[in-house]
Design a protein that fits this description.
two-stranded antiparallel ribbon; alpha+beta; His-Me finger endonuclease fold; about 45% helix
């Protein structure tokens, strides 16, 4: 059998029950006001926010204006919150890893060349991607977009990567020993 849990409303002094189903009860046992005080608070909020029904897009426009005036800050926060959530990597740890690699890709030893095109900020060079082991989620290093995509397309399989390297080396040697020219397409006679 449910015991009646009673509380005193700090706003109006009325004793009210927090047991669901009782007259005058509230929906949550964590609520500290009676239903009348809660309704009064809602009405006060509605009176002070009369612009909402008149202009429902007002808040959206206000937020859009704020985002536009804080573009760099938002980009920084969005990027690092994703990196932190996915890898547990802070901006300081990323910078330390980048400095340890000499600011270049861990595989090709070249700087990133991929570009990010944005209407507001224009064209910018992308940052090196955080490469990680998909099984253990441990960070392996920082890679340029081309090397990162290559590893991904090869399913991070060293055997496939070695086979691809062997294939390229074999055909490079063959091309050096013989001159392969592609046949020219025949021209049509009118």
């Amino acid at each position: 059998m449910n015991q009646l849990a009673a509380r005193t409303c700090p706003h109006c002094g009325v004793v009210f029950s927090t047991t669901p189903g009782c007259i005058g009860s509230v929906l949550s046992k964590h609520q500290n006001r009676c239903s009348r005080a809660t309704e009064e608070e809602r009405n006060t909020y509605r009176r002070t926010h009369k612009w909402r029904p008149a202009d429902p897009n007002y808040a959206r426009r206000q937020m859009a204006g704020w985002r536009e005036s804080h573009l760099e800050r938002n980009r920084f926060n969005a990027r690092w919150s994703r990196v932190k959530r996915a890898f547990g990597l802070t901006p300081e740890a990323y910078k330390a890893l980048l400095d340890a690699q000499g600011g270049v890709c861990a595989i090709c030893r070249k700087a990133e060349t991929a570009r990010n095109v944005n209407k507001q900020s224009g064209v910018r060079i992308k940052r090196l991607s955080v490469d990680h082991d998909h099984k253990t989620n441990k960070i392996r290093g920082l890679l340029c977009q081309h090397c990162n995509h290559t590893l991904g397309k090869m399913d991070d399989d060293p055997a496939r990567l070695r086979a691809a390297a062997d294939y390229l080396e074999k055909h490079q040697q063959q091309n050096q020993t013989r001159d392969l020219t592609l046949p020219q397409p025949q021209q049509r006679q009118p």
